[in-house]
Design a protein that fits this description.
globular; 2 domains; two-stranded antiparallel ribbon; 17 helices; Rossmann fold; seven-stranded mixed β-sheet
């Protein structure tokens, strides 16, 4: 009788359109509240080395086998063990990018985005929108810009460099496989904001006749050794950029305001020859509203744009080549 009564209650609720809409709306809002669980769960999976454990197992791994292999307090395992054991876990192409031994491992980049220092500004977005002084929510939260804090915090500085290096390594591999034409006809390139030279080394090695300059702040390139066709030069892009046929920016210009980007591009014009003589600027950046991209990729672009909005200042004849997933190659001519 009791069960029958409960079923009638459920059916009545399902037939009540107003209550159904109310509960669906509640679930919709709570879904936003709980969305952080996805990214945090992946963070914990990386910290527990779950992708590496599954990879070393060699065959699909049952949940109980995985739990036994995890470096955790086994008393916690009661919350995760599936007693039916019908499924095994193996790696997807995406999860392989999290393997320590994977040359294109992007774990460092993922962990930079989830560093508490980078997440805290999201708590102050509304506060920043109300004030008139701070450039972005990061400054509202920490009292200084991200790059200024990184100079003072060796751990943050290292994690940012490692994150950018992992991304540049992956982008370089895709360019060398599918878009080598970008560099094949060039004599010289200056990579502005090239960091510790991960991207530069890949390109310089693939094109031994190309003169490649990795240009960044003096403290970034200090002590780095080049090669026959690769050199590391320290300086300030707002003052002068080393002369070359092409100036390259990879995820750099989004850090700066429109006015500052205009100043940087002026320095570029001084550094390169005319368009007729092969001079151009190559920009690798995320370009929003690319109609050819799928919904998931576009969503990732928008998320990244919002992330940059909280931590940086930003948002001529040119061509855009959407060949790098969420990023595009943009050629700008003087």
């Amino acid at each position: 009788m009791h069960i029958h009564y409960k079923r009638r209650e459920v059916m009545a609720l399902q037939n009540d359109e107003q209550s159904s809409v109310l509960l669906d709306s509640q679930a919709h809002i709570l879904n936003y509240a709980y969305s952080f669980v996805r990214s945090m769960s992946l963070k914990y999976a990386i910290e527990l080395e779950i992708p590496d454990i599954i990879h070393r197992h060699g065959v699909p791994m049952s949940l109980s086998e995985l739990v036994d292999a995890l470096p955790i307090n086994k008393e916690r395992s009661q919350y995760v063990v599936d007693r039916e054991e019908r499924e095994g876990y193996s790696l997807t192409p995406a999860s392989r990018l999290l393997l320590k031994e994977e040359s294109l491992n992007i774990t460092p980049l993922f962990l930079v985005f989830l560093d508490p220092i980078m997440l805290d500004p999201w708590q102050n977005m509304s506060k920043w929108l109300r004030n008139e002084n701070d450039i972005n929510p990061f400054q509202t939260t920490h009292g200084k810009m991200a790059y200024e804090l990184a100079v003072e915090d060796p751990k943050l500085y290292q994690s940012i460099n490692e994150g950018m290096a992992s991304d540049r390594r992956l982008v370089a591999s895709v360019i060398l496989k599918h878009s080598k034409g970008i560099f094949e006809e060039l004599d010289s390139v200056v990579d502005v904001g090239g960091g510790t030279g991960t991207f530069a080394k890949c390109i310089a090695e693939a094109f031994p006749n190309l003169s490649y300059i990795n240009f960044d702040l003096p403290q970034v390139v200090k002590g780095l050794e080049g090669s026959k066709n690769l050199s590391f030069v320290g300086g300030d892009m707002f003052e002068t950029i080393p002369k070359a046929q092409v100036v390259l920016f990879k995820w750099v210009l989004h850090n700066w305001s429109d006015e500052e980007c205009a100043e940087i591009l002026k320095r570029c014009k001084e550094a390169i020859p005319t368009k007729e003589n092969g001079g151009k600027v190559i920009i690798i950046e995320i370009v929003l509203k690319d109609e050819e991209l799928g919904n998931k990729t576009l969503e990732t672009q928008l998320f990244y744009d919002m992330f940059e909005f909280t931590t940086t200042k930003g948002r001529q004849g040119y061509k855009i080549y959407p060949v790098l997933g969420i990023s595009s190659v943009i050629e700008v001519y003087p």
